[in-house]
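Re: folding output
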Amino acid sequence: MTVTIFLGALLAPMALGVPIAFALIISGVALMMYLDLFDAQIVAQNVLNGADSFPLMAVPFFLLAGEVMNTGGLSRRIVNLAMAMVGHIRGGLGFVAIFAACILSSLSGSAVADAAALGALLYPMMVKSGHDPARTGGLLASASIIGPIIPPSIGFILYGVIGGVSITKLFLAGIVPGLMIAAALCITWLIVARKEQFALPPRQSGAVRFKAFVDSIWALMLPVIIIVGLKFGVFTPTEAGVVAAVYSLFVAMVIYRELPPAKLFGVFVSAAKITSVVMFLVACAAVSAWLVTVADVPGELVSLLEPLMDNQTLLLLAIMALVVVVGTAMDMTPTILIMTPVLIPVIKEAGIDPVYFGVLFIINNSIGLITPPVGTVLNVICGVSKLNMEQLMKGVMPFLIAELIVLLLLILFPQIVTVPVALMGH
């Protein structure tokens, strides 16, 4: 009964168009009234405590870094480097998109920021060279979701804070799966683009490639600084966000000089707007998360999943199928905030490593960004490309299937995630 009340009080307001943050508070209040615990002070206290978290300070800084990279020329230089290296091979612009997405993901940690950069820079170029518009948009959308998987990742930060899981371990665990998704996209692109007739960019000389590399070296240094700093304990993931923001500001304003002081205020305002949405969601989710614990919703879920608790693979398949369905109707951040406190006790009861589960969970939520009707990344690419959602979905489908196959492989072979983290000494 508790689960029914929680879901009903959450989904009914959302169906009526109530913003998700307020729907979270309503679901928490509904549970409080059912348990005869209603107290407005408890609601207010949990909202304040929800946002009062040191690790969450990384979110605004990584979001700021992403805004600076797109405005200050770092993203453009990454794309130019990818063009110089692989743009000349057959289907090379598609590989440029995937290659650039991997590098951009190690800079911003945001799929939406990466989608905006890749869409604006590469979509016109790919369509002009003869690539199918829908397929091009589908590839760019699918490549953008590597952003929350390869560290730094805002999704991992939220999951780690709510679930009490090491964010550093999550960051390190996301590297190999992120590269696997990139490889799957490359293979899929080779298959779907082989019959297209398109113009190939000329092969660049060694001098041009070297110049592109030198021009982007300052941008490429950022992921190296973050990964090395986390690996050797120089800074925490929260401090890594500050490093990313300060470093990107320095490079954009002093080295590349493409971010004049006059534009700085607009960049800060844009990052602050996105941060306020994320943090308000986190604060409101704390109310329902506290009530979920008090009402023992995870305990009821464990009882429902009792037949699968002895088989980790079947349990993960069932949970991932549930998350895929939820991802079609809900954005990534609220899905993490709502489902993490419910699922963490379940997977611990089943003996599943929370770090390994976190990687699967964030990949699944990332895939939700390219599933309609809510898919945020789809909406970004639609805006950039002027395609409608139906056209874009046809283009994204082969790549979506490839990413789901990678998720299935990670469920069947958990060593892909756990072994690299163990080798890194964490």
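--- second protein (sequence, then structure) ---
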Amino acid sequence: MGIVVQKYGGTSVADKERIFRAARRAISEYEKGNKVVVVVSAQGDTTDELIEKAKEINENPSKREMDMLLSTGEQISIALMAMAIEKLGYPVISLTGWQAGIKTDSHYSNARIIEIDTERLQRELDKRNIVVVAGFQGINKYDDITTLGRGGSDTTAVALAAALKADKCEIYTDVDGVYTADPRIVPNASKLKEISYDEMLELATLGAKVLHNRSVELAKKYNIPLVVRSSFNDIEGTIVKEVNSVEKLLVSGVACDKDIARVAVIGVENVPGKAFQIFSLLAKENINVDIILQSIGREKTKDISFTVSKSNLKQTLDVLTKNLHVIGAKDITYADNVAKVSIVGAGMVNNPGVAAKMFEALYDAGINIEMISTSEIKISVLIDEKDAEKAVRAIHDKFKLHLLNSNGK
């Protein structure tokens, strides 16, 4: 008898039929003798609807009050899921994030889990209850409800699996597993049987919507195998684990992220410490920066360009504009009609020519590259947003990723 954590996304609990389907899956594990924890997201588009309700009242509400509002979506889901399991004749209890002992820092709307007090969870599991926990939320030192950011239910599930030393953590979603590209963009994308934590982390960070990147970080840290599978069928999913294959895939997948903007700080004085000034200002505001490009200094000045998420664009511009005199720059410009397209693969580190092949695919498709970023297992390019899907298809075809079978070979 072990502990199993199952997470169901918004589409997997969107209506009565789907809630009962998820409930039966949880019961199936319970009947095997396992202790079962079910983590659920808000139903369907509930979170978006709540955001719209907020805008009707206040276009710029505080993040604390938004957390108070958005956390109600998951509270609805856990109650309905518990009612379904109850209806099917099994012992169950629903818990909000704070009732489940999930303690976070105080970064409202994007909080991080600090610790989980498992006493209540263990007590309920020992009573042989199926425990249904609200994803995406916790409580801070001020006893305020906090949320973990979009996709935070994945993080909740993995954190609970780590805290409870669970035997497995299953992430149920609306796709059959992890694909070499988004099947909605590339219809002939291949499903991978397994993928490494590092590759999955890069894909999640770079725009693949299958898993939240912080959940993959946690899974890697605590060595928790994740299974990504569909809640709509019984097809075997993709296992995310520490893959030690002798022959790692050259390229495992192509990801696209349209939720980014490019910011350029123009005419910065070409002296030491200016980049530090700019990025320390953003770090203080908890703004993540991705691709960075610094031009060669001319006439004692240089330009520094970088990307941020669109949700952080206004705050980024406000911070930099307010401190323009401190930075010593001439101007701040931005573009929000850009996209980042990336390839990821653990085999790239030992194979020269991968970047050239990617750039050739973009050249053949007539797509211009604005910025480039590389690491040992990924290459990202910034391009015009209108070319994003064409770029993904061109790169996917160039690397013949459609020929990968479900064994990932």
